[in-house]
Amino acid sequence: MRFYELSEYFSKLESTTKRLEMFDILSEAFSKSSGDEIAKVVYLMEGELLPAFFGVQFGVADKMVEKAIAEAYGPDTKKVESEYKKLGDLGKVAENENKNGSGSSLTVSEVYNELFSITKISGEGSVEAKITALSNIFKKASKLESRYIARFVLGRLRLGVGEATIMEALSKAKTGKREFKKELEKAFNFCSDLGYVAEVFYKNGEESIKRFKVQVMRPIRPALAERLSSAKEIIEKLGKCALDQKFDGFRAQVHKKGSEVKVFSRNLEDITNFMPEIVAEIRKIKHDRIIFDSESLTYDEDTNTLYPFQITIQRKRKHNVLETSEKYPLRLFVFDIMLLDDESLVDKPYIERRKIIEKLFPEDAIISRSKIIITDSEKEFEKFFDDTVSSGLEGVVAKRLDGHYAAGARNFNWIKIKRSYKSRLNDTIDLVILGYFKGRGARADLGIGAVLAGVYDDKDDSFKTISKVGSGFSEEQFRSLKKMLDDIKVDHKPARVDSIMVPDIWAEPKYVITVKADEITRSPMHTAGMENEVGYALRFPRAVSFIREDKNANDANTVKEIEEMFKEQKNLKVS
Ligand code: ATP
Fold this sequence. Notes:
DNA ligase i, domain 1; D-amino Acid Aminotransferase, Chain A, domain 1; binds adenosine-5'-triphosphate
């Protein structure tokens, strides 16, 4: 495929505000892609060269793109700078300065490979070398192409396409139907790399997708837990089940292959470098290949205390990781295992996986296992829950004894129950920011007074609004929030956002915040769970966290979960 053709699809995608149109554009683009280029097309559509966990970065700033435009098209950098100030988009500036008319002979693979080579430039003189490499691409590109190349290297392509929509469109493009999406999803859940899945699908066909297996060093999309608020309901649902301690730390998915180790966070960022002391321990495991799921917590040896998430996550922000790792070492609590040497364990019953964990990991070590009990008695359940909570942990996760490892899914194989569920809507809700409202009154100076927030709807891969959130942020947080949102603002409602409210500034759905609210109510103003013109809304919402670094937009709570919380809240009201 020529890159010009792909640019035309980009242009169509950025001008649509409807998800169904987006689906049609994607299916058409995919049907015109060959097996050799489909991975590249998928990555480019997502605005990246590879999934984030590969850690591939351009390291290209606005100023460098300005220089590359000037070098390629002739105007001096001053003019480029002033055009950028005027238009606020270096993509538009490149397009305007470029006199190469319409269409070029560049192919998608050529552009992808040249862009990729920019990410490899490092060391002394790399800034100049990157500018030259970029200006060389600009020189070959036509007007429309240069628009997208500039935006892409700056991470501002923002077409708003979602993974679920891409998979559905791939299915349609290749099989003529949408149904094969389910199989693609399963493969994607096992490797978290949509480009790779698309390539296997195009080159090796449907059977190879159906046989797709987890592979070491390719992160598995984490299994997630449903929620219920009493031992009774959980035992009714699962029968005899395992109760596992729920640690409030930082999720760590560990991969080991020989002496090579990688650790991935809940949203599959590569966090290996943040835990050198743990990596050394992992290397000691006497198996060539292993993938396991665990929670990492900061541990104070003197007082024998485990510190929660807020403290543990600080490690990620600190520069002196080595020093921190000596002062506040981490411990891992293994709660699941997905691969051991040649054997994939994801389809084995939980209880068998647990036996392997017990063989491999002792109860008291740097890498230890969580403690479980197996029961169908409400009384025993309550006692284990109370003991766990009084030892400072968050709650328990009940596990279906014959449940497989449900990669990328939230279902009743795992059910969490936290101490906070005991009272009405005391649990927090994770919302994705969809835009913001400019401040009025006291907040006029800040330029931001509240954010429009929503939840994820996995039924149609969209975001539905549920609340305006204006309290809980400090002035300083508001200031940085505005900066972060301005950086990802879009000039019209993104196609996957479903909203009645119109914020002053729309933003690409990206950042997740955690809020607390007094109650879930019904409102005609919000689209989450909308039926007969009323949706769900939050009463007195306030932010209790700033940006959740371990969650992506799709990890916000879902409409289905809000519905469940709403029902649960009604039950609690009656009793
Ligand atoms: P939360 O914010 O409640 O932790 P979440 O959206 O991050 O929720 P859930 O799937 O709803 O994730 O809850 C399970 C989370 O609990 C996992 O992401 C994991 O990090 C953590 N966890 C701690 N201990 C366990 C355990 N023993 N088994 C499974 N998950 C555990």
